[in-house]
User: Fold this.
Amino acid sequence: MEKLSVAQARQVESVGKDVLLQGWVRTRRDSKGGFSFLELNDGTSLANVQIIAEATLPNYQAEILHLTAGCSISVEGTVQASPAKGQATEVRARRVLVHGLADAARYPLQKKGHTMEFLREIAHLRPRSNTFGAVLRVRHQICRSIHEFFWENGFLYVQAPIITGSDCEGAGQMFRVTSLDYSKPPRNEAGEIDFSKDFFGKSTYLTVSGQLEAEALACSLGKVYTFGPTFRAENSNTSRHLAEFWMIEPEAAFYTLEDNMDLAEAFLKRLFSDVLKHCGEDMQFFKDRIEPTAISTLEGIVQSPFRRLSYTEAIEILLQSKQAFEFPVAWGVDLQSEHERYLTEKHFQCPVILYDYPRQIKAFYMRLNDDGKTVRAMDVLVPRVGELIGGSQREERLDVLEQRMAEQGLDPAGYGWYLDLRRYGTVPHSGFGLGLERTVQFATGMGNIRDVIPFPRTPGNAEF
RNA sequence: UCCCCGAUAGCUCAAUGGUAGAGCAACCGGCUGUUAACCGGUUUGUUGUAGGUUCGAGUCCUACUCGGGGAGCCA
Assistant:
């Protein structure tokens, strides 16, 4: 007897095999012909396998006729070709072992569709829904492709710290990490809380980005990437933001911004082409039930080049668009969502890479262009989700970097080790950050980022 | 954090200021190699919380909580 997954048992190649299947019942249909149909799912595929349970089974009356959605069972039996439409194979059960019942009157998941809002309230059970199973399988495929892509391109997988002593990464509000007794914290002479008495002897926070550490590693090892959780204590209440999310940050020495854009484009194309190749059944589900353009959008991205244009060119297009924007367009202003959406959804209708942004609206570490007005930043914008990637060529010249820090009111004392990278063997280098959840959101067509991560953390919500 | 919308049965939603209802689910029965099965019947409520207006509030007013859409911040 061979232990098979539901996905394997659905393959015609499995016909004739003596198998063990284990999973959760989705539904039961009884036939007065003297048997019942059980739909079994184990998470390995969107589709269920149909189990034929004959009334002659010893526990048919006592147990099988009481199986409902959510019950867990083991089935021993034989895979056979199905005589009816709807599935290629089915499993004729020789034995059905019930592990756990699920009180049908209380079990919250029904056979019929639920709203995403309701499923979010039962985050511990929603992986059993079709939508969530499909989301998590696509998420898994994307994670795998990320590692494969970088492996094949010579990038070293490195780990940046999750607890950071740098309070000036500049990417947003941070969560403080402390082991101080908050009912009686140590205080200095000024009456302020004395974090020098804290666990690490200083203030520490959850990381908002591994970029600065990745730069140190890239400036030693060449091409590296991080892939880990990041945290933002922003009070963001949108369908595209999480307080805890996963970010992929490649960083490469001797990479120009052009190299960086080439990398980002090849990277995204690889991720989405793998999803199309390996998640066909799940993608068809998203197309049918979630977003009609789910598959065609990914196909378009894989097949056609991204449109690259400078910030200045983008401003020109927006000014000439004759669109009524809520926020006025002018060179020097940061682009608003409506502007980005216009470019990617209406004007070009494809992914857009914008580069060379005004120095005033971008971070200090981005390399200053010779025009003195713009920096080597780039954003990859996609329809519906907006910014999928943000990156830049980093400022490798010590004097320029120090000047840019001063310009933005940053204290160089907090960046000693980061400036060292420019003092000793500095090299041009570039990198970017990709939000995993936004990537999954884009690939699946899911409307809310809270529904592409198993247990979402958002302001006021850490229930599970 | 700001603007707009919402909260009624387990789920999705109805209900002129005047006796709270339907579909689905659940339960019982029927039928059937069925497959979001189908047919008949039964059960289900402190109308988000706390106040207020009124003879009377699911409905009007105020505050709060939670959820959704949009914006800002960004990935």
